[in-house]
C-alpha cells in the first residue's frame, strides 16, 4: 500500500520543464525508501494526476515553479503560496491539473493529508533545447531536500552508497547532439 | 452576425481554438485550430527503432500508452516480426485498462458538466433521487444517504460563494435541462468516478510496471517475466489481483456509466439530431487474439456517407487499401508544402502565418482516406461493429437503446447515433464491451500460461537496407497509426496519424472541412457569450490537442476564454 508519492511533473522535451522528472530520478538513485514510498515521473498528466494523489498520506510534487527568486533557486511551497500567487507553476496543461485534481479529491473526501511542492525557478522552457546547466546542477540538492522532507515527517530513507545510475533516457540525444556540435 | 472564438475549449492539457460564425442563433461556419506544434516526430528521427516507443509515449501527457503500443507495432510490422500470444494478451489488457480510464474521465470529469448544472443540486430531493437511480440499475452506490451526503457537500460549496474549479461552468444556462435530482445523481457519480479512474490505472500499472508511462514493452513482445511460482514476476497472485480489480471496476462501467449516458440521451433528445458532421467513419481492428494478429476482438472497417448497410471491413493490419488510402495535406496547416503526402513520405517543416481563415490556420494537418475526411473515435468503432454484425457491439448497443426507452419511452435507432449524443453513448457502449473483453483476455492469458507457455518476447533482427512499417491501434479517441521508415535499425522517418488529427482536421486542399468543423454547422447558440451548445458538440469528440499538435511554446492562457469578435 503506497502512502507517500514523490511525483516529478514536467515535459522532458521542454528545457527546464524537465526538472521534475530529473530530480525524482536522481532521488530514486540516491536514496533507499520503504515500499510505502512511490517515486514517479508523471510527465504532464493534467487531471489524470488524481489517481496518484488519492488517499495519500503525503505527496511531494517536484516541478519547475516561477517565483521571485534567482534562477535555479530551490524552494518548498505549500498550496497557499500558489493561491496567493506568490508562486506559479509553469502554465502548461499540468498547472490546472494539480489544483483541479486536488479540489476534486477534496470534494470526494480522498485528498492527500499533506502536499508540498518542491520547485526550482526555471531559466528557459523551450522545445528540445535541453535543461539549463544552472537548473540541472540542482538535481542532487533537490534529491536531498526530498529526503529531508520525508525524514522530517517520520518516513525513513537512507542515502545509497554508491548511488545507482539514473536512467535519463531523454537526455541521451541531447548529449549526442552537443558532442557533434563541439 | 456574431463571430465567436473559443480558446482553449479543452478542460485538460490541450490547445484547441474553435471559431464559429453565428447567424440567427445558428452556426453557419466553423474553424478548428490547434495552437501548438508537435515536435516529437523530429525528435524520433535518427533514434534506435528498438527504443522509439519510450519517446513515442511522450507524444501526449495523457494518452501515453497508446503511442507506445502503436510504435512497437509499427516496428514489428516493418520487421514482419510476430509476437507471442502472451504478449498480445498483456498488451490488450493494458490497452483496455487505459481506454476504460480515458472514457470514464472523459465522460465524468471533462464533459458531464456541459449537461449537469451544479447550482440545481441544492434543490434536489435525495429520496426521490435515490429512487430514480435505483430504478436505473442495481449499483450499490445510489443510496439516499450517499446522495444526501453529496448534496451537503455541494450546498457547502455553493454557500461558500467560492465554486473554485466549478466557477467557470455555464450554470443556469437555458440549455441546461436536467431535474435537480438527475443533476444530483450524475454529480454523485462524478465524484465516485475518481475511485474507478484510479482502479483502471491499477490495471495498467500491474502489467505495465508503471503508469502513466509503461515500462514493460519491447519490440518483439513484452518484458514481463512469467513464472507462476515466483514472487517477483507475473504470477497467480498478480493475475488474481487483476481479476479482483476488474470485478470492482466493471459494475461501475456497465451499471453506472452506461445508464448515465442513457439518462443524458433521454433528457437531451435534441442532441441525437445535432452534430452529425462528417459521416464517413474509420475504425481499425484491435485486440489481436493470436501471434500473427490474424483474428481480432474489435472489428475494423470504413463506412462512407453514413450508410450503415455498406461497411467495408478492414480485416487485419495488413489491409492494402488502408496502407494506400491514408494521406495528409498541409494546404491549411502551418507547414511548408501542401501535399497530400502518404505518411511514409510525410514532412513537418513549420511555416507559421497566424490565423488566416482562408489560408493556413492550424498546426493540425488534414488526414484523408482515399481523399475523404473521416470521423474517428468510439462512435466509428461502435457503428462499424454494429454494421458488420459484431455480436458484442450489438448486445451493448441494444442494451443502451432499451435503457433509454426505459427512462421516458424514447425509441432510437443506430442511425440516431450519428450525432453529438451518439458520440457520448458510443463511448459508454464501447466501455461496456471492453469490460467484457478484459475478463476474456485475462482468461486467455491465464489459460495460455497454465498450458505451459511462458514466452513473452521474440528478439528483433534489423536488416541493413531501408524497411517501412505501420502500426495501428483503435485508441480511446479512435484510429491511430504510426508510420515508420527504418534504416540500419534507426528511424529515418516517423509520422503519427492520430485520432484527433482525423477529427480536428482543417479544410483540405479542396476546401473540404474536417469533422469538428462540419459537426458545428447548424448548432444552435442561444447566448453568444455562453456558447454551451458548441462546447457540447466539440467535447463529444473527446478532443486531445496535446497529441494532435503539441508543445512548441506556452500560451499563458489559464482558463477558457470566450471572445465575441
Quick summary of this structure?
The complex is a heterodimer of chains A (182) and B (565). Chain A is built from seven helices and eight strands.
Show the helix and strand layout.
The complex is a heterodimer of chains A (182) and B (565).
Chain A (H helix, E strand, L loop, with lengths): L3 E6 L9 H12 E2 L4 E7 L6 H4 L4 E9 L7 E4 L1 H5 L4 E2 L4 H15 L5 E7 L12 H4 L2 H14 L5 E2 L12 H10 L1
Parallel strand pairs in A: 1-3, 1-4, 4-7
Antiparallel strand pairs in A: 2-8, 4-6, 5-7
Helix pairs in contact in A: 1-6
Chain B lengths: L1 E6 L8 E8 L2 E9 L5 H5 L7 H5 L7 H16 L5 H27 L14 H11 L7 H17 L19 H29 L8 E2 L2 E2 L13 H32 L13 E3 L2 E3 L7 E3 L1 E4 L8 E3 L5 H6 E4 L36 E4 L8 H10 L3 H18 L11 H31 L15 E10 L2 E10 L2 E8 L1 H5 L11 H6 L11 H8 L5 H4 L12 E4 L1
Antiparallel strand pairs in B: 1-2, 1-16, 2-3, 4-5, 6-9, 7-8, 9-10, 11-12, 13-14, 14-15
Protein name (chain B): Hydrogenase large subunit
GO molecular function (chain B): ferredoxin hydrogenase activity; nickel cation binding
Pfam families (chain B): NiFeSe_Hases (PF00374)
Strand residue content of chain A:
15-25%
Q: What's the CATH class label of chain A? A: Alpha Beta
Q: What low-confidence regions of chain A span 5 or more consecutive residues with pLDDT below 50?
A: 91-95
Strand order of the largest sheet of chain B: 3-2-1-16
> Going by CATH, what is the homologous superfamily of chain A?
HybD-like
Measured on Cα atoms, how large is the radius of gyration of chain A? 16 Å
Number of helices of chain B: 16
Major sheet characteristics of chain B: 4 strands, antiparallel
Pfam family, one (chain A): HycI
Keywords (chain A): Hydrolase, Protease
Protein name (chain A): Hydrogenase maturation protease
Organism (chain A): Granulicella rosea
